[in-house]
Amino acid sequence: MCLFCDIIEGKIPSNKVYEDENVLCFRDINPVAPTHVLVVPKKHFDNIIDISAKDDGAKYLDACAKAIATVAKAEGLGTGFRVINNCGEDGGQTVNHLHFHLIGGLKLTEKII
Ligand code: AMP
Ligand code: ZN
């Protein structure tokens, strides 16, 4: 069972902001900024290591990059934003379906943490 696969399949509702053939973007249920969108490939990959090892991984990574650009523009983040990927236990990953956090709408500092 994977929470984000269930969201992609519509079994669990989400606040969708963008969707195409390969990617779904929806608002994080626990936002840390005015814009906090999760960018999720529609195919299940466990994490960034998994997707980098798969033949079709590049296609989905490209879709994520383009979706980040599209959503950032739609959210009015022309002056900047941050993209975060948590990988693995020590990386703070809690949902084991690769996703990127798109965070913006506030002045972020240079510090990552
Ligand atoms: P990570 O810790 O990088 O794996 O991020 C998982 C993110 O998913 C967290 O920021 C959660 O707030 C978010 N999240 C968990 N369940 C849901 C849900 N049902 N809808 C939207 N976001 C969720
Ligand atoms: Zn999944």
Cofactors and ligands present?
adenosine monophosphate, zinc ion
Q: Over the alpha carbons, how many angstroms does the gyration radius reach?
A: 14 Å
Count of the domains:
1
CATH topology: HIT family, subunit A
At the first level of CATH, the class is Alpha Beta
Indicate the percent of residues in helices. Answer: 25-40%
Question: Distance between termini?
Answer: 31 Å
Strand content: 15-25%
- The residue-averaged pLDDT reads 98
The order of strands across the largest sheet is 1-2-3-5-4
Find the CATH superfamily.
HIT-like
Q: How does this structure look, described?
A:
The chain is of the alpha+beta class. The chain has one domain (3-104): HIT family, subunit A, CATH 3.30.428.10. It has 3 helices and 5 strands. It has helices at residues 3-8, 48-53, 57-74; strands at residues 16-19, 23-27, 35-41, 81-84, 100-104. Strands 1-2-3-5-4 form a 5-stranded antiparallel sheet, with helices on one face. A hairpin with a 7-residue loop joins β2 and β3 (35-41). The longest helix has 18 residues, at 57-74. The termini are far apart. Bound molecules: adenosine monophosphate (AMP) and zinc ion.
